[in-house]
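A further point concerns the way the authors explain their paired sequence and structure data. The central task, working out the structure tokens from the amino acid sequence alone, is never made concrete. I therefore recommend that a typical entry be quoted early in the introduction. An entry of this sort, consisting of the sequence and the corresponding backbone structure tokens, reads as follows:
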Amino acid sequence: MSEIRKDPISHTWVIISIERAKRPSDYTKASAENENGQLSENCPLCKEAAIPPPPNDPWSGIAKERNNQWVTRVLPNKFPALKPDVSLAQKEENGFYHSLSGVGGHEIILDSLNHTETLSQMKLSQLEAMLLTYQTRFFRWKLDHRISYVLIFRNYKKAAGASLSHPHSQVIASPIIPPRIFEELREAKEYYKLHRECIFCRMIRDELKLRVRLIYQNPSILIFSPYAARFPFETYIIPKKHLASLEETDKKTLKDLSKAFKFLFSRLAEVLSDPPYNYMLHVSPLKTPGLLYYHWHIEVIPRLAMPAGYEFGSGIFINPTSPEEAAKILRKKENDSSAT
């Protein structure tokens, strides 16, 4: 059974998941693979997507039907880091070490039923359906009083941690607020106390004014390279309007978000030869919706450089590409108004 353990010398939690150790690195033999992973006829996600879910299936989400075909699909992870059928309990060892039972959820979202489709290749309607499916997972997990935080993320290609090549995202619902989110919340709250303004809203205003790290904007969404980017070509996708959670986001903003996704991932594929990447959706905790000092955003990290000894030892990252240069490269030509 999974266990969530706290490091006694830092605000760090670790999920010890024995179940994940049973996960094979892939689901087919090497002879049945191409360079992108499993062939569609051997893909377990393709097979799962072909099976209609039973009525009232909690994993199905909103998964839309079109001519009895799913546009997106939500499935329980077969090798979950956390499980919903576990009682929330705390444990101590020697009055010093602290842990929680591995309660939570771990889902897979099929971003598309097309086995070989990438984000850069998806139609806007497919991207919009994927993002709408993301939104429904927050509504679903909000019903579970044990859950404090839901993190949606995507690992693309093996170098970024993907064990399956079928286009998919993941959802982990946990009883704790992740340390990275905790730090963001703390800093944002302190800034709000001093300035009575959301720090992310201030960041948006500055990036729109300075424009040197601006990559793309449309009526609702902004993409920019963060001032202290930790990795080459790290980018933020963020709504211009103050919104603490994806739950609060309307359909017009989600539609604009799908256009921003199309732009960014097409540019990454074109400029950086379709690199491996991770992206993570940061939102306010489930139990504190509507925060005035927190602003949801998506962090996109192309896997172009590996953290090494200094980064792991110090927590300080060395980035060989300035965010200003990265933004300049990712922007389209100056005469293309869609870029800014």
